[in-house]
């Protein structure tokens, strides 16, 4: 740096002075030798050699001194640099700790689904928020035309859509626990069912049975998730397998679901909401305030159960079911961030939870990648990111996210 360079320049000053003095002496000797009819000219080389030797000795001594001082300077500089790096590292660690500790607010994205967008149903959902101490930060509407044009529903249901129309059953990552649930429900191994050609994605299932999306959805709506005769099981977040007319179908509800969002006059009514995590956990927000995915089993008093119980009074055209269950809510603070980015065009930097993720040391590139629900290594195996973070509060999501990236 500038201080080190100045020190080195000061160290070189004696060397420059010695060199100038030797140069003057050598010049004087040469002049006298040349003006005395070459008298003593034979001694000129001797004087030159002596002068050169003297200069070399001074130069060597000065160089050694400079090198020594420069070495000490760089050792000191290196020590200061390491100390600075240690302080920066400590500040970074404290910043991450402070960021996690400050994540005391849960922030979700919620929308009333197209089939339930009525003034009465919207008012009911807002009343449930108020009763639970949940603050509505903003709200608005998105039309079918916008949803279709901007492909918002396809991005929103990216993982669901890919399982329903893009991936073959053999390409699906079914966890051991899900395979065990499949065997318990249907009496056969998942791998055997796939090998025998008994499993289809939603699009393939429609083709196999010769029906359209609406007909598949109607059959799907009759499936049972619990009790005797169970024929619908959940493999993971947005990942379902149902037995329809003798075959197993993955996410059979999706084909009809998209058209429900993209066919005018359909629309959604959305909310961004926040609440203190210490007063309401994310799990209770989904389970008690919103209610279970299946409205018939949702807790009494929850939004989904109330919409199911009073659907005619609320102005709905048909009884709610697992797909059309009145309202959607983010499954975790991370998914809420991704949904705000998709539906509202929110910036990760400016979002309440996005800023927390960045502040905790999770890069923007990682956030973008995670919005697609990738399979990430955790506990010795690849798992759905969304599944790993489901129903966790903001602070816990940050902690687990850091573990996932190895910090």
Automatic annotation (TrEMBL):
Q: Which InterPro entries match?
A: NDK-like_dom_sf (IPR036850)
Q: Which Gene3D superfamilies match?
A: Nucleoside diphosphate kinase-like domain
Organism superkingdom: Eukaryota
- Protein's recorded name: Nucleoside-diphosphate kinase
Q: What is the lineage of its organism?
A: Eukaryota, Sar, Stramenopiles, Ochrophyta, Dictyochophyceae
